[in-house]
Amino acid sequence: MQSNTKIGITTTVPVEIILASGAIPVDINNIFITDVDPGNLVDKAEKAGFPQNTCSWIKGLYQTIISQNIEKVLSPVWGDCSNSFALSEILSECGIEVIEFQYPFDRNIKRLKESFKELYDRFDVSEKDVLKKHDDLQKVRKELKTIDDLTIKGNISGKDNHIYLVSSSDFEGNPDLFLKKIKNRPNIIKKESDDNHRIGIIGVPPIFTNFFDVLEELGFSVVYNEIPAEFSMIKSLDKGFYEKYLEYSYPYGMRFRLHTIKKEIKRRRLKGIIHYTQCFCYRQIEDILLRKNIDIPILTIEGDRPCEIDSRSRMRLENFWELL
Ligand code: SF4
Hints:
The chain has helices at residues 15-20, 28-33, 38-47, 56-67, 84-93, 109-123, 127-153, 158-166, 175-183, 211-218, 226-232, 241-247, 254-267, 287-293, 311-323; strands at 6-9, 24-27, 72-78, 97-102, 198-202, 221-225, 272-278, 298-303. The protein is an alpha/beta fold.
């Protein structure tokens, strides 16, 4: 792989492989949602033929890849999103090189290694280079763990926690600069702790542009962002490279994710959960499993297009605050 080639990623992938090759990982989700007008990107994707009843993240990903002239994309076709396969086919049709791999649904380490080793060939790297890169990233992940611990104590807001952890999918393209940036974070806050409103956000990243601002305004303390915490791989820093990607729960279904969620409810002393679901996403069905297995109050909030939170959802959040 040519040095400095941009590799678009659509979710958490073994980023160590991209970095070991000298290429630059670019998380397309983050570019899409921080665009000045993400709604316009969704509109454009619909004009290009994407159906209205398709998840807006998928449409945003497609249009961002096209608009940013990304030429190569690394995408899991199993273990991420049921729409990824069709998106990969469309991107290939547009002349974009799509490098596919799979997370094995049975979490079999042999199959995970085989899948990753195929990528070593595609990226022209050795296993030794990749393991070295994994070791180099430990210092960044340690700092992210510190950030997450400070969030539990109430010293870093749920919004900042979300931004820092979600950025760890690609380390903003440069782990060293990213580490400097997060070490120089300006946002240590001291606030009255409100134990009754300690909540966790479960599910795919919310598409609402002011989601965390509204939660803070209403008086919730977000002390757990499930999926961003998974992206950052900070649960067991001492685990090896392959083991980290087996422990990372997102690709392996809700029944596996529930083990972590239950542990974190206790550890973070959560009083409630907001389950964010995305319109037209197959993961909405997982709400059934969450409700069957979790015994603290759950509010399910659905978003569709990237925009501010609607008044009905806001009212439901207000009621949930009262309930807690
Ligand atoms: S929200 Fe669901 S459908 Fe949309 S990209 Fe994510 S996993 Fe796929």
